Amino acid sequence: NAGVTQTPKFRVLKTGQSMTLLCAQDMNHEYMYWYRQDPGMGLRLIHYSVGEGTTAKGEVPDGYNVSRLKKQNFLLGLESAAPSQTSVYFCASSSFSGGWSETQYFGPGTRLLVL
Amino acid sequence: KQEVTQIPAALSVPEGENLVLNCSFTDSAIYNLQWFRQDPGKGLTSLLLIQSSQREQTSGRLNASLDKSSGRSTLYIAASQPGDSATYLCAVHSGGGADGLTFGKGTHLIIQP
Hints:
Chain A contains no helices and 13 strands. Chain A has strands spanning 4-7, 10-13, 19-25, 31-38, 42-51, 54-57, 65-67, 73-78, 87-94, 96-97, 100-101, 105-106, 110-114. In chain A, strands 2, 4, 5, 6, 9, 12 and 13 form a seven-stranded mixed sheet that branches. In chain A, strands 1-3-8-7 form a four-stranded antiparallel sheet, with no helix packed on it. In chain A, strands 10-11 form a two-stranded antiparallel ribbon. Chain A is globular. Chain A is an all-beta fold. In chain A, 35% of the residues are buried. Chain B is mostly beta strands. Chain B is 0% helix and 56% strand. Chain B is built from no helices and eleven strands. In chain B, strands 2, 4, 5, 9, 10 and 11 form a six-stranded mixed sheet that branches. Chain B has a five-stranded antiparallel sheet with strand order 1-3-8-7-6, with no helix packed on it. In chain B, β6 and β7 form a beta hairpin. At the A-B interface, β4, β5, β11 and β12 of A face β4, β5, β9 and β10 of B.
């Protein structure tokens, strides 16, 4: 199993450009998450999904959109990139039991630089 | 709002020592707590998950404890090795259902050979 994979690994954007980050998991997990990691701030939740076709906002959702058209994929979109979105983006997935998530498994991350 | 604090922020010890990393959280109404390891430039690797009904979990040289009422968890590493050098992150799941994890800022650990 590949686990959680993320595409691309690194990207440079100019302010105002758009892009989509792709996350894929092969563990048949229901739940998927997008986090960003910034120096001094730790990891913060952007958006998450509890199943195909459903998404919800996390702690820092502004400037991002997400879609979960297939169970195994979770897309994170930046419509108009800003320098404040320079960060490392991590995707994670988990199964659930008793109504809440179990161990979260993380992808290797995408480093995004917005100039 | 849940807040997670990790102490110390950095720690450097000689190889072979036993050590303890601390994590505290402000809202004791959690579902579970997870410890991760992160190597430079890499993703997060899950080490241990403790459900709210559990007191501790063990994996090899690692032992994590949870005292939910006091809002504390510790990660104990026995007989440390240079390969244990990494940043260790504590995270709690306190939202309803599938809300994501709230992370501490981590403890940067260096094991000196």
